Amino acid sequence: MFNYIHAEFYKLFRRKYTWIMLILLLLGELFLVSNLAYAAGSNPMRNFTFAMEAVRIMLPVGLFATLFSADIVFAGQYKNSTMKNEVSFGLSRTRTYLGKLLSQILLSLLALFAAMAFYSILCWLLLPHSGGVLPGLQILAGMLLSALPIWIGTQAIICAFLFSLNSGTAAQFATLGLLYVPSIVIQVVTMITGLSPLTKVLLKINPWLLDVSLTDFSYGLHSDSMRLWIIGGFWLLAATATGLYLFRKKEIK
């Protein structure tokens, strides 16, 4: 498995796609922090700690970021017929599947570390430290650790769709559908049915949805990080088991 992941990263670090996405991410952060620094000139509350706390409302963006990291790793293997080559070469499907999933997660973690390090350094350089630096970093670390399992669960979902569907675009749309359509349907149905037994059932399901969990956390509606780890772990296991089963049964052309 280590050799497989090492081979994946050898390819990843040599793909322009990887570096272009990272540069765009860092440029976006530069733009954001520059605006915060401009606002700090007239509002002393726009300090380092405020910038760290502001990351909370950007946490749901991590769900979309998983689509890019998965696409970078999977690299259209059905479209380019490279998946057939891997399987024909004798690599086990389990090793291929888990190797890709772990590569996705590791790439995301590296990108997250680079992005947050760059963001923190920019904020330290351009913003006042009236609220202290260490408290702000502690806030940032706590938020990222809480959101991490939700992002990993989403990685498992997009990985399952990429291995199960022949089209990468279809896999991305399927992932977005699974992430956001159930919560929208539940909202609409509960508005229509009122306080019915169906509403009670749906309201018990709703907190287990990844987008709902992360959005609620980003708006401070709950702060139980253990709950997020349980939800993320559930989706990681469920998506991985389903995706691996379908990939083992799939005929690769």
Describe this structure in words.
With 253 residues, this protein is mostly helical. Helix content is 79%, strand content 0%. The chain has 11 helices and no strands. The longest helix is centred in the middle third of the chain and has 34 residues.
Task: Record keyword descriptors for this entry.
single chain, 253 residues, mainly alpha, 11 helices
What's the layout of helices and strands?
Layout: H1 2-12, H2 16-40, H3 48-54, H4 61-74, H5 82-89, H6 93-126, H7 134-164, H8 168-193, H9 197-205, H10 210-218, H11 225-249
Helix pairs in contact: 1-6, 2-6, 3-7, 4-6, 4-7, 6-7, 6-11, 7-8, 7-10, 7-11, 8-9
Major sheet characteristics: none
From the structure provided, what is the oligomeric state, counting identical versus distinct chains?
single chain
Structural category: mainly alpha
Low-confidence stretches: none
- Nearest-integer average pLDDT: 88
- Helix fraction, binned, reads over 70%
Cα gyration radius (Å): 20 Å
The H-and-E topology, N to C, reads as HHHHHHHHHHH
- Give the strand content: under 5%
Total count of strands: 0
* Distance, first to last CA: 25 Å
Number of helices: 11
- The best one-word shape is globular
Q: Can I get a quick summary?
A:
This protein is about 80% helix and about 0% strand. The chain has helices spanning about 1-10, 15-40, 50-55, 60-75, 80-90, 95-125, 135-165, 170-195, 195-205, 210-220, 225-250.
